[in-house]
Design brief:
Helix content of chain A: 55-70%
CATH superfamily of the largest domain in chain B: ABC transporter type 1, transmembrane domain
Number of domains of chain B: 3
Oligomer: heterodimer
Shape of chain B: elongated
CATH topology of the largest domain in chain A: Rossmann fold
Distance between the termini of chain A: 79 Å
Number of strands of chain A: 10
Strand content of chain A: 5-15%
Distance between the termini of chain B: 73 Å
Structural class of chain B: alpha/beta
Helix content of chain B: 55-70%
Strand order of the largest sheet of chain A: 6-7-8-3-9-10
CATH architecture of the largest domain in chain A: 3-Layer(aba) Sandwich
CATH class of the largest domain in chain B: Mainly Alpha
Structural class of chain A: alpha/beta
Largest sheet of chain A: 6 strands, mixed
Largest interface: A-B, 174 and 183 residues
InterPro entries (chain B): AAA+_ATPase (IPR003593), ABC1_TM_dom (IPR011527), ABC1_TM_sf (IPR036640), ABC_transporter-like_ATP-bd (IPR003439), ABC_transporter-like_CS (IPR017871), P-loop_NTPase (IPR027417), Type_1_exporter (IPR039421)
Subcellular location (chain B): Cell membrane
Protein name (chain B): Multidrug resistance protein
Number of helices of chain B: 24
Radius of gyration of chain B: 36 Å
CATH class of the largest domain in chain A: Alpha Beta
Main location (chain B): membrane
Number of strands of chain B: 12
Domain ABC transporter (chain B): 334-567
Number of domains of chain A: 3
Radius of gyration of chain A: 35 Å
CATH superfamily of the largest domain in chain A: P-loop containing nucleotide triphosphate hydrolases
Chain lengths: 607, 577
């Protein structure tokens, strides 16, 4: 039958028999450790537990009230209207009004408080996760995609949030209503109750038939959506390239292809998942008919009253609804718990270890030694990125690191900043091993200008001030002047208060580097690390900055990486790196005279 | 909203059929209390078992009828909503692709992405739901009311007492919902932005020990989100209890007066039961209202955001695409004639009165201080932006007369920040020329000095880059993006400081490999050494041409150029070495 309906719409069948079969033995996206995940959530709920218990009471109250309502109405019909006895009617009516007030109030309060609890819990999870991310080592971020972490912070938490918001109350009240309804029904007419319950096995079979198909479809839909979203993101952020190469038609075509796929899968998952409420509706209506029909026949024999039929017809509805809810919520709860588990997975990641105590503050002089340092990013890597590197830079000296791309220069700086820990050997500052200096202590006296300048969506002023949060406006401007950024900043629309956007389209790449340097200058560090900090800056401007930098570097230890060798000509000492090894070291004079690798590099760059 | 509806139009018949089927379902549901009335009044009260059997079976039958209508409805509504979303998504994507760079500046990247992703699914879902259940909810209310009136107007009247009050109340709630939820959406955007920034800038944050500072910044935005979400959701929570209460009280009023009427013999019990049943159904439908309002408020916000994009009529490249072929007169030549330019929404000119000429096969180096307008100048050539005044001539023809596609076909553009797409190395190199053969690919990569590195990758040319692929160093990315431009065999090769991450040795090998190129080259560079190899040098200063000529001429005439040259004289090795 499906085929006959399918064809006219032009949708291919995407579910194979295997897909349906496979689902039987395979549980997708389920949490592996329920207990600990739920326990974790319970701990986060924390001081709100008392309120949560009050909410539970409210749910009990509203369930009782919603059971009592129809029950009393049935009674009114049977005892008063049928028998034309209106004596106690007003009393019952007032009782009902009280019940309805109670119902509305308890419904409102339980939701009102639950929203508070859920939002507070989500807030704690969100900020807890974010704070945790700040404490994780860089290697954690190397191994994971931003997109994946983003989805952890957004989708997974959102998932837990909506489940906490609605599901918690719903599941609890569904169970209560179910049990309550059953009890009342049984007490009124066991036979009719049994007839109403006929639908339960039918419901289970039908739902299973559907979910077996939707599980696979939902997963496929998610995948198709992901592929589509990835493409959208790339094509929009790479728009300049798309235009330069006139590839718009191809992009549109590729997009239509992915879009079609999503539409195909979307159609089927809509059709199948849309079946569940329809089946429920059918069963609902069928049980209603059974109650009315059979109830009517029983009433003829005087075995049930009309009131009972009225109550049952209402209860039959109340009975299927919580079942329906439970079936729906089951999936939500499963995926929320799986989401929560992923979030807590990050919470359990090992943080940046710091053996050094924060209490001992080292006032650094900046005497840096590498003793036989080796390092690789992954334990499984075949070769070391840094191999047996030893050197000594005295306090106040400027050291230059030169060498081809991939020689390990940036890694040296990252080890010094303790982004990573060495595998072998030792790095010391002022003869103290850096592991004994807390990161807080170390980095507070260090400024690192990174290869790729990053600016926050903030004003120019705040971006510079990032180096030293309590710098005054004058200090910020002073740093900008030294970095030769002041002039261009003043030409911006709002000067220092110009708001920078994510793409930073307002300013050029070189200007971004100038701002990062200003940021380092305002930090006033003991040790200064410059990683290709001036690669996009023209040489005249660079010279001007260098005068400032030279003044600044006096009395500070500096490490400078640059491809342009003249950038490093004021260096006291030059280290030449090659494939992770330190192959030459010495003053410019010495290396030039030696006529080795450095000399050759100089020659090449002057050729 | 009008634009949204125009996308539903092609599927209106499917929608109409879906709605009709839903009405069948609804009718089934609304008939049930009526049948109960029959069973009670004609069957039980009159002691007629045949009637009970008859109406009981009819009830069962129409339940199945409703089911079949419901299932068929799924097909029609799924088709209508999926097709609607499909068209909408494609239209949005096409529109965005046709944006000029100027139009792009008006939208933040993240904003465009959400419009194409979550906003589309939001609206699609609402359509699907409307065709199936959402429209049904108010219809249940209205239908029940009509049926109740049909059964016994004198009793049904009590059900509508609360109606005006409820109508005003709901209208108010919808209004509030739309405002609250759009502010929640803004908070979510803000939270996401802080997360994204931090993921990108993790090294920086750590370098400056700003972890706790960032955490407290995040707490602020997360708290704002919490407060606003609670407010929005809590406001919605007023709806259900109030609706329930009003309906329940109306029900009691019906019972009270109904009892009186039965006593006076004006009403039959079955009628009263039917009306009570209708009232209960209305109450049940009302509990869906708060959910629907939330849904609609969010969809409205999404629809508005998408319309913002769809309704853009100006600043599109479409009309520029299909201009006829030009007769090329002076292939490979380039002329800037008194060109001035400022970015939209800014006051200061970035380029002022730029004039220069380039012959076929010439290599022009462009130099100048940071922010002097070098990159901007290059971006005018493929017409990413149009000049504010003055003209640019490519192959002797004003760029404004070119079809954009033909113009850009002539140009191999290598941007300052190398950007690759998800896919294999091969895919990325052939990006600009899908028809390229393996030999052509290798020729380009050898020229770009990246062939050897590629052979060391795990799957050489089939190695994936981008998401889930290898991490390429900055220098490798730059060389790949140069290869991507070379494979097009362009008339003009534009390099925007695209070798900054290369070490000296690789860079000089690259330049000598490019020696043989026929293309007219425009090269932004910081290095005198590169400039020396150029036929002519254009020196910019604050958006003005400071000097134009050969290296020797500029050494002679330009103070600024000499200054740059001195800034680059290497120590220790004299110039003859």
């Amino acid at each position: 039958m499906l085929k006959a309906i399918r064809e006219p719409f032009g949708y291919k069948n995407i579910l194979t028999k295997e897909d349906i079969q496979k689902k039987r033995n395979k549980k997708v996206d389920r949490a592996t450790n329920w207990g600990s995940t739920l326990g974790h959530i319970w701990r986060i709920v924390d001081e709100q537990r008392a309120l949560l218990i009050i909410v539970l009471f409210m749910v009990v109250a509203s369930s009782v009230f919603s059971l009592l309502g129809p029950y009393l109405i049935g009674k009114i019909i049977d005892n008063h209207i049928m028998k034309a006895q209106f004596a106690g009617l007003s009393k019952l009516i007032f009782g009902l009004i009280a019940i309805y007030i109670g119902l509305s109030l308890s419904l409102f309060l339980q939701n009102y408080w639950m929203i508070g609890i859920a939002q507070q819990t989500i807030y704690r999870m969100r900020t807890g996760l974010f704070t945790k991310l700040q404490k994780l080592p860089i290697s954690f971020f190397d191994k994971r995609q931003h997109g994946e972490l983003m989805s952890r912070m957004t989708n997974d938490i959102e998932n837990v949030s909506s489940t906490l918001n609605s599901t918690f109350i719903q599941v609890f009240s569904s169970v209560l209503t179910l049990v309550g309804t059953l009890v009342v029904m049984l007490s009124m007419s066991p036979l009719l109750t049994l007839l109403t319950m006929i639908i339960i096995p039918v419901m289970f079979v039908a739902t299973r038939w559907i979910t077996r198909r939707t599980g696979k479809l939902f997963k496929e839909q998610q995948r198709a959506l992901g592929a589509l979203n990835g493409m959208i993101e790339e094509s929009i952020s790479g728009q300049r390239i798309v235009k330069a190469f006139s590839q718009e038609p191809r992009m549109i075509e590729e997009f239509a292809e992915k879009s079609t796929k999503l539409r195909q899968i979307g159609f089927w998952s809509n059709v199948y998942s849309g079946g569940i409420p329809k089946v429920m509706n059918l069963l609902n209506n069928a049980s209603f008919a059974i109650v009315a029909g059979v109830g009517g026949l029983l009433a003829l024999k005087g075995q049930v009253t009309i009131g009972t039929i009225v109550i049952f017809s209402e209860y039959a509805r109340q009975f299927t609804r919580p079942l329906n809810d439970l079936a729906n919520q089951f999936n939500n709860v499963l995926s929320a718990i799986a989401g929560a588990e992923r979030v807590f997975g990050i919470m359990n990641e090992e943080e940046e270890k710091d053996l050094a105590s924060d209490k001992v503050i080292h006032q650094l002089q900046g005497d840096v030694k590498f003793n036989n340092v080796s390092f690789k990013y992954e334990q499984t890597d075949a070769t070391h990125t840094i191999k047996n590197v030893s050197f000594h830079v005295e306090a106040g000296q400027t050291a230059a690191l030169v060498g081809a791309t991939g020689a390990g220069k940036t890694t040296i700086l990252q080890l010094l900043a303790r982004y990573y820990e060495v595998n072998n050997g030792e790095i010391t500052i002022d003869d103290t091993p850096i592991q004994a200096i807390s990161r807080q202590n170390l980095r507070s006296q260090m400024a690192f200008v990174l290869q790729d300048p990053f600016l926050f969506e903030e004003t120019v002023r705040e971006n510079i001030r990032y180096g030293q949060l309590n710098a005054t406006d004058e200090e910020v401007e002073e740093a900008a002047r030294k970095a030769n950024a002041h002039d261009f900043i003043m030409k911006l629309k709002n000067g220092y208060d110009t708001f920078l956007t994510a793409d930073g389209a307002e300013i050029s790449q070189g200007q971004k580097q100038l701002l990062s340097i200003a940021r380092a200058l305002v930090a006033d560090p003991v040790i200064l690390l410059l990683d290709e900090a001036t690669s996009s800056i023209d040489t005249v401007t660079e010279l001007k900055i260098q005068e400032a930098l030279e003044r600044l570097m006096k009395g500070r230890t500096s490490f400078v990486i640059a491809h342009r060798l003249n950038t490093v000509r004021q260096a006291d000492i030059v280290f030449v790196m090659q494939q992770g090894e330190l192959v030459e070291a010495g003053t410019q004079q010495e290396l030039t005279e030696k006529q080795g690798i450095y000399y050759k590099m100089l020659e090449e760059s002057n050729a | 909203m009008k634009t949204m509806f125009s996308y539903i139009k092609p599927y209106k018949w499917f929608a109409v059929i879906a709605i009709s089927l839903m009405l069948v379902e609804l009718a089934v549901e609304l008939m049930q209390p009526l049948i109960i009335k029959k069973i009670i009044d004609d069957g039980i009260v009159l002691q007629d078992s045949a009637t009970v059997w008859l109406w009981g079976s009819i009830m069962m039958l129409i339940a199945f009828l409703g089911f079949i209508a419901g299932i068929t409805n799924s097909f029609f509504s799924a088709h209508a909503s999926q097709s609607f979303a499909f068209d909408l998504r494609n239209a949005l994507f096409k529109k965005v692709q046709s944006f000029t760079m100027t139009t792009f500046l008006r939208f933040p990247t993240a904003g465009l992405i959400t419009r194409l992703t979550s906003d589309v699914s939001q609206v699609q879902q609402v359509l699907f739901m409307s065709l199936r259940v959402m429209l049904r909810t108010p219809l249940v209310v209205i239908g029940s009311l009509i049926m109740a009136f049909y059964v016994k107007p004198s009793l049904a009247v009590y059900l509508v007492i609360g109606a005006p009050f409820l109508a005003i109340f709901l209208l108010l709630m919808v209004r509030k919902g739309i405002t609250y939820f759009s502010s929640v959406q803004k908070r979510v955007d803000r939270v996401n932005r802080v997360i994204q920034e931090n993921l990108q800038a993790m090294r920086l944050v750590k370098a400056y020990l700003r972890g706790m500072y960032e955490a407290s910044r995040f707490e602020k935005v997360a708290n704002a989100l919490k407060v606003d979400t609670s407010k929005a959701l809590r406001t919605m929570e007023y709806i259900q209890p109030i609706l329930l209460f009003v309906m329940n009280v109306s029900l009691l009023v019906v019972l009270w007066f109904g009892a009186g009427k039965i006593e006076q013999g004006e009403t039959q019990i079955g009628e009263l039961v039917a009306i009570v049943n209708y009232a209960l159904r209305m109450t049940g439908a009302f509990s869906m209202f708060s959910f629907i309002i939330v849904f609609i408020s969010r969809a409205k916000a999404s629809a508005d955001r998408m319309e913002e994009v769809l309704l853009i009529e100006e600043g599109l490249e479409d009309d520029e695409m299909d201009k006829g072929l030009l007769e090329v007169r002076q292939r490979g030549t380039l002329r800037f004639d008194n060109v001035s330019f400022k970015y939209p929404q800014t006051d200061d000119f970035v380029l002022r009165n730029i004039s220069f000429k380039c012959e076929q096969g010439e290599k022009l180096a462009i130099m100048g201080a940071t922010g002097s307008g070098k990159s901007t100048l290059l971006q005018l050539l493929p017409r990413f932006y149009d000049t504010t005044s003055g003209d640019i001539f490519v192959d002797g023809e004003n760029v404004k007369n070119w079809s954009l596609e033909k113009l850009r076909e002539e140009i191999g553009y290598v941007p300052q920040r190398a950007l690759l797409f998800t896919g294999s190395i091969h895919d990325n190199v052939t990006w600009g020329n899908t028809a390229a053969s393996i030999e052509q690919v290798q020729e380009a990569t050898i020229q770009a000095q990246i062939h050897d590195s590629i052979q060391h990758f795990p799957n050489d040319y089939e190695t994936r880059v981008g998401q889930k692929g290898v991490n390429l160093s900055g220098g490798q990315k730059q060389r790949l993006s140069i290869a991507r431009a070379l494979i097009r065999k362009p008339e003009f090769l534009i390099l925007d400081d695209s070798t900054s991450a290369l070490d000296v040795k690789t860079e000089s090998a690259l330049w000598s490999a490019l020696e043989g190129e026929d293309a007219t080259m425009l090269v932004v560079t910081q290095k005198i050494r590169t400039a020396k190899g150029a036929d002519r040098i254009l020196l910019l200063e604050d958006g003005l041409v400071s000097a134009f000529g050969t290296h020797e001429e500029l050494m002679e005439s330009s103070i600024l150029y000499r200054k740059i040259a001195t800034s680059q004289q290497e120590q220790g090795v004299d110039d003859n070495a």
